[in-house]
Amino acid sequence: MSNISVIIPVYNEANTIYSFLLYLHKMNSNNIMEFLVIDGGSTDGTQKIISEFSKKNEKFKRIDSKKGRAIQMNIGATKSSGHILYFLHADSLPPEKYDKYIIEAIDHGSGSGCFRMKFDSAHWILKIAGWLTQLNWKSCRGGDQSLFVDKDLFFEVGGYNEKLLIYEDNDLIYKLYKYSKFKVIQQWLKTSARRYHSNGIFRLQIHFGIIHLKKYFGATSKSLESYYSKHIK
Q1: Which of 42, 98, 114, 227 has its CA 20 to 30 A from that of 3?
Q2: Going by C-beta distance under 8 Å and a sequence separation of 6 or more, which residues neighbour residue 200?
Q3: If we measure between CA atoms, which residue out of 97, 94, 107, 76 comes closest to residue 1?
Q4: Taking 60 as the threshold, does the pLDDT of residue 89 lie above it?
Q5: pTM for this prediction
Q6: Where in the chain are the domains?
Q7: Contacts of the segment 200-208: beta carbons below 8 A, 24+ positions apart
Q8: Which CA distances in Å does 13 have to 47, 48, 113, 152, 177?
């Protein structure tokens, strides 16, 4: 049987982490080997909530790490026991039976993939952005859609680039498009629009577009980090 390790990087998610973990627990199945919650040094009580939750749910494990999503996810992959890695953001809710969809995709020859995504917002721009995620184009990808990948393939392509503090998801996804059959599962994953609400929907969409263009034209990781820190909360 194919077993899945769900890997969740977190940092200061005390307001929502319990309900998120409970959501995953309710959809637990025999296909899920473990839920690895990789904490990057939270200071708001997130660690305690995860630890208390894991006492009642043995599949849930808290692993401490240095801050940095790429670092956290690589640590999760290293410590995982499953044959399939499923990277999931703490503000993204996968569809029911997501484990079965993932295993089916892997069994049919897809080495990696994601779900199509919708925001928890009715704003027309975010609806369009969500609609585009059903297309199997790498330019339509992002970490909020989650990512599943065969474990051996993950390590073959080098995992997440820990030098990148932003754009680490896209960097890995682009490699997976090159070296594997990438599958976009046509089931809805719902993700939070909180960054858009805190930054402004038009403003954030423009800044994300600029970051993609800067990366396309060869901007260094340091340049991208500087731009992100300056313009995005």
Answers
A1: 42
A2: none
A3: 107
A4: yes
A5: 0.93
A6: 4-118+141-189
A7: 201/123, 201/125, 201/126, 202/125, 204/232, 205/125, 205/129, 207/231, 207/232
A8: 9, 11, 26, 30, 31
Measured distance CA(181)–CA(229) in Å, rounded: 34
Checking if the pLDDT of 169 tops 60, the result is yes
Using only C-alpha atoms, the chain has a radius of gyration, in whole angstroms, of 17
- How many CB atoms are closer than 10 A to CB 69? 23
Determine which helix (DSSP H) or strand (DSSP E) holds 13, and give its type and residue range: none
Cα distances from 126 to residues 69, 121, 129, 165, 205, in angstroms, run: 24, 7, 5, 24, 9
Give CA–CA dist 136/141, Å, rounded: 8
* CATH topology assigned to domain 4-118+141-189: Spore Coat Polysaccharide Biosynthesis Protein SpsA; Chain A (3.90.550)
- Return d(Cα 175, Cα 138) in angstroms, integer: 10
